[in-house]
Amino acid sequence: MAAPLTSALLYLDGVSVSFDGFRALNNLSLVLEPGEMRAIIGPNGAGKTTMMDVITGKTRPDTGDVYFQGTHDLRRLDEAAIAELGIGRKFQKPTVFDAHTVEDNLLLALKAPRGVYANLVHHLSGAQARRIDEILETVRLAERRREPAGALSHGQRQWLEIGMLLAQDPALLLVDEPVAGMTDAETAETAELLRRINRTHSVIVVEHDMHFVRELDVKVTVLHEGSVLAEGDLDAVSADERVVEVYLGR
Amino acid sequence: MIARALVSRFGPLVGIAVAILLALAVAVPALNLLVPAGSPLHVPTHVVVLLGKWLAYALLAVSLDLVWGYCGILSLGHGAFFALGGYAMGMYLMRQIGPRGVYGNPVLPDFMVFLNWTELPVTWWGFQSFPYALLMVVLAPGLLALALGWFAFRSRVTGVYLSIITQAMTYALLLAFFRNNMGFGGNNGLTDFKDILGHPIQGPGVRAALFAATALALAAGLLIARFVVTSKLGLVLVAIRDAEARARFLGYRAERYKLFVFTLSAAMAGCAGALYVPQVGIINPSEFSPANSIEAVIWVAVGGRGTLVGAALGAVLVNAAKSWFTGALPDYWLFALGALFIVATVVLPKGVMGLAARLRPRKAPLPPQAPVPAQQPAE
Ligand SMILES: Nc1ncnc2c1ncn2[C@@H]1O[C@H](COP(=O)(O)OP(=O)(O)OP(=O)(O)O)[C@@H](O)[C@H]1O
Ligand SMILES: [Mg+2]
């Protein structure tokens, strides 16, 4: 394996993505250190989700570098390979497997071999069953474990998808708008949960909810028109005039 | 006792279906061979053959349900896999004729002598051996599915485009097998079979044995399919069916799972074809006709997609209706079939199995069935 190009866990440099001439990402650079949690804010259409698409292999950048753990060039890998490397994702629109029960959704996400044969002969181990029980408690879905995920409310689907991230146990979690559709109490709990997750995992959170971002109490990156407008702690970026103008002052 | 063991391992539906098939495999041959022809309990040979044919179709339906119901691959070419299995069996049966053909050639089938061929084409080598023929019954459709799937799934061809490709595949094979120089008997196909494993193929004992073999094969097909869909791999298949992109982001390589289940299903369809051919006594290129594959889709839709047992039931019910119609109102069968399909999709989205479940609500969990088969793109 080649020597790491950078000590950063995630390294984006000069990344641009165009859709039919429209620049969704414009020379975006972002560095995430191991163990860091980063909040990303920015107006609608700023390119936050597109950035996650680039990191997870859904969208190929036109230009720029994307490295994970300094050695893995994410531009060359497909979604499954990137997931196997240890990057997990919660989608903006909660995406779970509706036909499967809550616990089967977690089982599918649970860290385990992803090959065809391994899954054909898979037997649920005691440790795996306990882990699923634990996660069900954490995301408060223990009572509904045998119901199809399609029957859950929007907020519960958010929680289930967060639970799937926990089950997947990736080194880096990309969490896109986790508290949309949640009550204030649930939002506070989610912030607390993410802080707990951050003790052992690196996290990138995209969120519009400023109370939530404040509770996370981490470095904030402001995206605007596909590039970084400002970076720093929340108070510093909130004081930035350009940020107020394009985003906070709406 | 067997039934109870089956139910506890494979669930009530498949367990009961397999128990019934095992009983049929014994009872139908017994009532045909042992009960005298005058008795009301006697099952005449033509009925044995008809039932055997339906069960072979049922196995084809189960194989199709495995890919369509559980992985969202709407194959409109499964008839091709069925026909390839049938041809492999037909080639064995042709070579069993030996010197008893019209031209008396000990090696070459009649149609080759007629075409002035002097040597057996390579494709026919080995088919004098029954085990080799059985291997080809599975390998020929399996390898075709593997090759087609490898290209299609890797390029992420899905939905209606994939359906069109499978339909084109069976149509291309239809045209190819029509050609005399392909060496598979041209438009006449393969027929006038004499023996199977040294026994006269028209004899009542062989008829009954073929029926029993088909019932057992269908039972085995149901058990294998049920084992696959109830494994964790089965969960992955349904996940791919409903949200392929999401499954990829969890690290599952959708193309490999599809390739596995498509190939398994094609091999199963091949077995169905191989059991069908000795019972009907002929295999010709019309078995590749796209309409056959579409009919199989209708069986599955009528019986209930994603239920396995429903697919088998649908095949039997639709073919029973077809037998009745072609006797009573031959001109109206296609209209009836079309109407059946529309009724099944509009009124009974889960087919006969869904109707049964609605009439008698039970706690037995049906296999996961998504309300909408369309893919929901992960954002
Ligand atoms: N696949 C695509 N094809 C065309 N345009 C796209 C595509 N994906 C994103 N865009 C456009 O790129 C821009 C950035 O979109 P993106 O979803 O990344 O924004 P966002 O910052 O996540 O916004 P929001 O806060 O609304 O979620 C938007 O204008 C969007 O319309
Ligand atoms: Mg977004």
TrEMBL record, chain A:
Transmembrane segments: none annotated. InterPro entries: AAA+_ATPase, ABC_AA/LPS_Transport, ABC_transporter-like_ATP-bd, ABC_transptr_urea_ATP-bd_UrtD, BCA_ABC_TP_C, P-loop_NTPase. GO terms for molecular function: ATP binding; ATP hydrolysis activity. GO terms for cellular component: plasma membrane. Residues 10-250 form the ABC transporter domain. The keyword Heme does not apply. SUPFAM superfamilies: P-loop containing nucleoside triphosphate hydrolases (SSF52540). It comes from the Bacteria. SMART domains: AAA (SM00382). Keywords: ATP-binding, Nucleotide-binding, Transport. The keyword Cytoplasm does not apply. This is Urea ABC transporter ATP-binding protein UrtD.
From TrEMBL, chain B:
It is found in: Cell membrane. It comes from the Bacteria. GO terms for molecular function: branched-chain amino acid transmembrane transporter activity. CDD domains: TM_PBP1_LivM_like (cd06581). InterPro entries: ABC_transp_permease, ABC_transptr_urea_perm_UrtC, LivM-like. Pfam families: BPD_transp_2. The chain crosses the membrane at residues 12-34, 54-87, 133-153, 160-178, 208-238, 259-277, 297-320, 332-357. GO terms for cellular component: plasma membrane. It is a multi-pass membrane protein. Keywords: Cell membrane, Membrane, Transmembrane, Transmembrane helix. NCBIfam families: urea_trans_UrtC (TIGR03408). This is Urea ABC transporter permease subunit UrtC. It comes from Salinarimonas soli. The lineage of its organism: Bacteria, Pseudomonadati, Pseudomonadota, Alphaproteobacteria, Hyphomicrobiales. The gene is urtC.
